[in-house]
TrEMBL record:
Residue ranges constituting the Thymidylate kinase-like domain according to the UniProt record: 15-208
Key word ATP-binding present: yes
Gene name of this polypeptide: tmk
Name recorded for this polypeptide: Thymidylate kinase
Binding sites annotated in the UniProt record for ATP: 17-24
Originating organism: Devosia rhodophyticola
Function: Phosphorylation of dTMP to form dTDP in both de novo and salvage pathways of dTTP synthesis.
Coiled coil region boundaries: none
Length: 228
């Protein structure tokens, strides 16, 4: 079992990928796995996680920043991130709680940078500003064909009884989402020490196991012998 004497510092794990690849589903499952090992973990998301960051989320996802352009949107995402890091991520880690975030800084690089055309100099400067040395310990990049992922998003809307109108980025065309997928692949390949790339085109349960195996491999303190 996870002995107190084996305890290491709390870890910061982020999930990244395109729309509908299963991030939220798997964030919840990872949290349950950690809690079953008596590890206190906080689930959060970006943009969001704090009241001020959630206000920025609503503003952007309702499309109110669209006419400002991708550069201004990158700055807005970074402002939300700065608050999120200072108010939630940093204090949680300091209190010994693991933090699992549904999206983080790689989303700005993929959406606004590599797909939206914002210059790398600005993206990197915003990362330095907003992260304040809180680069994630591990990032799970979920990858799949966006056409299949969008079928899942449509199904989710159907199950929730909603008409799918698409938020600020969901309504971009399929070519845009294919470039976005390439952007995340580029980020994963450029950061092998942090990122683990996993195919999301598999059953929910098998994907959960693949992620858990990768997390255990990254953090050996989680490894439990003779696990069922
Ligand atoms: N492995 C899977 N196989 C089939 N369906 C899945 C799988 N994982 C999640 N789903 C379903 O696909 C939909 C999208 O999943 P989820 O909300 O977890 O994705 P997401 O990446 O967080 O989406 P978004 O980017 O829109 O926030 C949900 O209806 C969910 O139940
Ligand atoms: C953090 C972040 C997010 N986005 C985009 C990605 C999604 O379209 C939305 C968030 O919605 P989700 O249902 O929670 O995935 O925002 C972005 O463009 N840039 C970012 O930095």
């Amino acid at each position: 079992m996870f002995e107190a004497s084996q305890q290491r510092r709390a870890r910061f794990i982020t999930f990244e990928g395109g729309e509908g690849v299963g991030k939220s589903t798997q964030v919840k499952r990872l949290l349950a796995r950690l809690e079953s090992r008596s590890i206190t973990a906080v689930r959060t998301r970006e943009p969001g996680g704090t009241p001020r960051a959630e206000a920025i989320r609503s503003f952007i996802l309702q499309g109110r920043s669209e006419s400002w352009g991708a550069g201004a949107e990158a700055i807005l995402f970074a402002a939300a991130r700065l608050d999120h890091v200072k108010e939630l991520v940093e204090p949680s880690l300091a209190a010994g709680k693991w933090v699992i975030s549904d999206r983080f800084h790689d989303s700005t690089r993929a959406y606004q940078g590599l797909t939206g055309g914002v210059d790398d100099t600005l993206i990197s400067a915003l990362e330095t500003l907003a992260l304040d040395d809180h680069t994630p310990d591990m990032t799970v990049v979920l990858d799949m064909d966006p056409e299949i992922a969008f079928q899942r998003v449509e199904q989710r809307a159907l199950e929730d009884g909603l008409v799918l109108t698409g938020d600020r980025f969901e309504k971009e065309d399929i070519a845009w989402h294919k470039r976005l997928r390439d952007g995340f692949l580029e980020i994963a390949r450029a950061n092998p020490e942090r990122c683990v790339l996993i195919s999301a085109d598999q059953e929910v349960d098998s994907l959960e196991v693949a992620i858990w195996n990768a997390v255990q491999a990254r953090f050996p303190e989680l490894h439990i012998e003779h696990e069922a």
